[in-house]
Design brief:
Elements lengths: L2 H11 L4 E7 L5 H14 L3 E5 L10 H12 L4 H12 L7 E5 L1 H7 L1 H11 L3 E4 L8 H9 L3 E2 L2 E2 L5 H10 L4 E4 L12 H12 L6 E4 L5 H7 L5 E4 L1 H7 L7 H17 L1
Helix pairs in contact: 2-4, 2-12, 4-6, 5-6, 10-12
């Protein structure tokens, strides 16, 4: 059982919902990524999603695009991201870490080498936005052989066939994109999301995490009525933009604590 699967099993036994928090590796500076990861866990994160900086992040809105640009300006590479996970693992061997990114850096390193090094570094799951399930059966199988959960995205426009493919190839959890658009978009229709989830749940036994557009404790709690996890990304990055270095980690904790409390209420 992977760390992700074990974490969801533990939360289910406790009748609690998972809080998944996203940071872009290297933003605002590589020195802060590992302390920030630890701070998020201390504030209540159950799973960490670490973004691999990329120059053309097609699924990401302007907030995460700016985060990638700041990290790339500091020279952060995929190998640097793996090293950050290694350093995080020196203190935390329990919290699942999911890398989210795009195909180009992985293919530049080589899929086999990347998966092997990610597993060795302590990564638990992989979300590769531009690897649709129909085209990456071998990648998913290789990831599973190295103990990594391949995690796929579903959207409001996903067909029954796409849902079935994700259920067949994926593991860890299913990531449901709550709206038509990029990360950080507004107009989250909670009722529409909740109406869509039972159809996905009928096709898979994997937990369902919902992200894109969840911005605060109230929306997180409402989404958690039907989801197993909520994912918060752009709003957290937005909270940290421009924060003084010495306040960065505490500002993250301050943002996360009320969301954790709302999910547990």
């Amino acid at each position: 059982m992977s760390r992700i699967q074990a974490r969801f099993a533990s939360l289910q036994a406790e009748r609690r919902k998972a809080l998944i928090l996203f940071v872009t590796a290297g933003d605002p500076d590589p020195a802060f990524t590992v302390p920030l990861m630890h701070g998020l866990v201390e504030a209540g994160a159950d799973i960490l999603e670490v973004g691999v900086p990329f120059s053309d992040p097609m699924a990401d809105g302007p907030v995460i695009q700016r985060a990638s640009e700041r990290a790339l300006a500091k020279g952060v590479s995929l190998r640097d991201v793996l090293d950050m996970v290694r350093r995080f693992r020196a203190r935390d061997t329990a919290t699942p870490v999911v890398l989210m990114g795009y195909a180009n850096p992985i293919e530049s390193m080589g899929e086999g080498r990347f998966i092997a090094e990610a597993g060795e570094a302590g990564v638990d799951g992989l979300i590769v936005v531009d690897y649709p399930p129909e085209e990456c059966g071998e990648f998913a199988a290789l990831a599973k052989r190295h103990g990594l959960d391949p995690i796929f995205l579903l959207a409001p426009t996903s067909t029954a066939g796409r849902v079935a493919e994700v259920a067949r190839l994926g593991s860890g959890f299913v990531y449901y994109v709550s709206l038509k658009g990029v990360t950080g978009s507004g107009h989250l229709d909670v009722d529409e999301v909740l109406a869509r989830l039972p159809g996905i749940r009928a096709a898979t036994q994997l937990p369902i995490g919902v992200g894109f557009g969840i911005r605060d404790a109230a929306s997180a709690r409402r989404i958690s009525r039907g989801a197993d996890a909520v994912v918060i990304a752009s709003r957290l990055i937005q909270e940290l933009e421009g924060a003084p270095d010495e306040q960065l980690v505490e500002r993250a904790r301050t943002f996360v604590r009320p969301i954790r409390e709302a999910l547990d209420a």
